[in-house]
Amino acid sequence: MLDLNQINKAYHNQSSLIDSRAHILYIYNEIDKYIANAFSFILDGLSKNEIVAFVDTDHVVGKVKKMIVSNGIEITSLQNLIVMSSSDTYLAKNEFDINQAENLIRRIKPFLEKGHAIRTWGNVPFLEFESTLERIKIYENISDELISQNRMISVCAYNGLLIPAYVQNELLKSHTYFMTDSDFSLSPLYQKEHLHNSSSEEIERLRALQKQNKELSDRNTQLTIENNLVKLKNEMVIQNEQKIRNIVDQLPIPTIIRRGTCVLFLNDEAQKQFYINNGNIEEEQLNHFFEEYDKNTVLLVEQNMQKHQFTFMDGSVKYFLVKSIQLLDEDEPAILHSFVDITHEKENEFLMVRSEKMNIVGELAASIAHELRNPLTAIKGFFHLLKSQNKDRELYYSIIDDELSRIEQISSELLTLAKPHSENKCKCNIIQLIDDVVVLLTPQANMKNIEVKKVANCDEFYITCENTKLKQVFINLIKNSIDAMENSGNIVIDIQENKEFVKIQIIDQGCGIPKELLDRLGEPFYTTKEKGTGLGLMVCFQIIESHNGSIQVESLVNEGTTFTITLPVIGKEETILLNKK
């Protein structure tokens, strides 16, 4: 049951303002409030025994009838209710037709002639045709004239979502009251002179308004179409950009889009390679690259690919081949950089250059050593003969003897470089081998008040090696540590082993090696010693590499140097073969 006290009844609440001759323009927006107001209007008329004509769509008429029946209205009262269809009442050939609309007037005219009080409620459909406003104005003028001469209250309802504002303004001129879903007032534009038959000037004015509205409507439709096309294009652009970003995001190479030093986009691979140390981006290195790029923009326009070295925050170094492309991101200039990792190729290139150097040095060393040894043997023989016969020049003889020994040592190192490494490897206890070297070099260390300490968690640990060659490596490295320490101190030999490799660290407290010189260690004839040749370290690198191991050097100036040697452990299959031998 509908509670009438709960209904928002704009008409009923303002009924005291309405006289018996009211022509009401109702512009509605909300269908539920509209139906409630229509029901209240009809119920009020039936309760006063007035003739009520209700013109609306079949759907609304059905709803109002149900509301009337559910509220217990007597059958006798329903005899005063005239129900008509909006389309049948107002339209002919789907246009508003004045003759058709006058059917309502013809239907209620007999009741008017008998002096009955009449109230009508008509939902007038407004269709956008050239003469619609002109016809509706004529019909509303006729209706207003009829209402003013009889006891009539008439509500002309129009859908506010469909009716243009200029039409509403014109209709206010021929209605005494104005009503919305929740408000009711006198019409601000109603004037009696507006009800006179329309003059030719008035008709022209209305037609001009309709023409102007039609042009604006067409223009608005065109703008809507164009706006929809722009939206569609923008959506397509966004979709294409998203597809491209998805493709770029899946690329196996780092890709970055940036504007200035502002990074706009990083794909997954770039985030993996440039985000390290708990997610800290390598901003400094990237910004350095961006600055270098911008400095050389003119050059890079012609050749937009360059090699670039990155030293990461963890100290690792990678080499990239960087491809740069100018593009637009959100309609503003930006640059896309793709980074191809060529670190492995760089390392191979370095190894090839080093191998070539070693070959050249080996060939050169062999020829020089053989040429030196023959005259050196003769010189040493005659020198010792001369020395035994003339003993009054001992100081000179001592200097000559030292220098000849030095030449002989250099010749031996040159021959070591030239001599190919044999594969005469055997099972060897690396702990015992290092103990032998420590015993050998302890007297030399004691002369400089240096203590050589060995740290190991076991007494036996076997690897496959040429023990004489490996012993030569440790002798050279420990002697270098002794030479690097001017004052007393410690040299620690730390041995650590696991299932796959053994790591031996030789840690001294010497003068250290500058960072810029570390990469050159192991090159032929490069040394930090005043009287060194650089061949000793080169031989050490060769021997360790021939054992499938590696040497790494870390050093701080005035603090010391650490040589780390890593060698593979002996495998089960190798153990069986060596035991058979």
Task: Describe the protein in words.
The protein is α/β, with parallel strands linked by helices. The protein contains 19 helices and 23 strands. It has a 7-stranded mixed beta sheet with strand order 3-2-6-7-1-8-9, with helices on both faces. A 5-stranded antiparallel beta sheet has the order 11-10-16-15-14. Strands 18-20-21-23-22 form a 5-stranded mixed beta sheet, with helices on one face. α15 (430-446) runs parallel beside α16. The chain is rod-shaped. Mean pLDDT is 78; it is low at 1-17 and 572-581.
Properties at a glance:
23% strand, 23 strands, 19 helices, five-stranded antiparallel beta sheet, 581 residues, disordered N terminus, seven-stranded mixed beta sheet
Radius of gyration over alpha carbons? 53 Å
> Which stretches are low in confidence, meaning pLDDT under 50 for 5 or more residues running?
1-17, 572-581
Look at the helices and sheets and give the structural class.
Answer: alpha/beta
Beta-strand fraction estimate? 15-25%
On the 0 to 100 scale, the average pLDDT is: 78
Number of discrete helical segments: 19
Main pleated sheet: 7 strands, mixed
Strand order of the largest sheet: 3-2-6-7-1-8-9
First and last CA, distance? 110 Å
How many β strands by DSSP? 23
What is the helix content?
40-55%
Silhouette? rod-shaped
